[in-house]
Amino acid sequence: MDGAVAVSGRDVRRVRGDASPWQSIAARLARTIVVVTAASGRDHHGMTADSFTLVSHDPALVMVAVAVGSRTHRLLASVPGFGVSVLAAEQAAVATHFASRRRSPGIRQFDLVNWETAPHSGAPVLTEALAWLDCERRDLVPAGDHVLVVGQVVAAGTRNRPGGPLVRCERRYLSLGPWPDDAL
Ligand SMILES: Cc1cc2nc3c(=O)[nH]c(=O)nc-3n(C[C@H](O)[C@H](O)[C@H](O)COP(=O)(O)O)c2cc1C
User: pTM higher than 0.70 for the full model?
Assistant: First the structure.
């Protein structure tokens, strides 16, 4: 088959800054960008993620893969619920901010955005996001160097103006939408 690559542990790592063949292929997947958030006492935290997906309709279950040992992993493992903000097309700077290692710790990392408190989890959710979800944590499933965090959606909302999601593909942020009225 044209362009076939063997994928082993060695193949997934970068070599002197260059993407491995596997990374180049993985980059072709189009992913919706979200910010996963949680609050524990006075500790508020958010992280950009592209691994978010819906896994069940009834009950409404969602999943995000978080890197083992990340601050987000530690926090999500310790709280009963979390928030998800689905970023809107014009929010690439927000995605960059919540992925930065230099962002302020705690609630100060939210100084750059408008946010509200999700009703059940108490997680911060971003006011200008396309949609927000308030989730009860159901399962933590080890998966290689990530943990799959499965949550049940217990409340959700969407903003009341047109526009599509922020998507990432080929290492670029892409804007989808706004859609023509008759596309919905
Ligand atoms: C577009 C994009 C998508 C990302 N998706 C994920 C993801 O799905 N899971 C993850 O653990 N990290 C993901 N990251 C990396 C984290 O956002 C980044 O490492 C962050 O600083 C981790 O925060 P923490 O260590 O405070 O938890 C992504 C980064 C970017 C830029």
Answer: yes
- With 0-12 / 13-18 / 19 or more C-beta atoms within 10 angstroms meaning exposed / middle / buried, residue 54 is exposed
Nearest protein Cα to ligand 1, atom 11: 66
Query: In 3D, which of 65, 82, 74 has the Cα closest to residue 142?
Result: 65
Which CATH class for the 33-170 domain?
Answer: mainly beta
Q: Is-contact 114 127, C-beta < 8 A?
A: yes
| Lowest mean pLDDT across 2-6, 32-36, 138-142, 148-152 | 2-6
Cα distance between residue 117 and residue 149, in whole Å: 20
Query: Is the CB–ligand 1 distance for residue 34 below 6 Å?
Result: no
Gap from CA of 101 to ligand 1 centroid (Å): 9
**In the chain, where the domains are located:** 1-31, 33-170
Compute, in angstroms, the gap from residue 42 CA to the centroid of ligand 1: 22
User: Tokens for 171?
Assistant: 């290492």
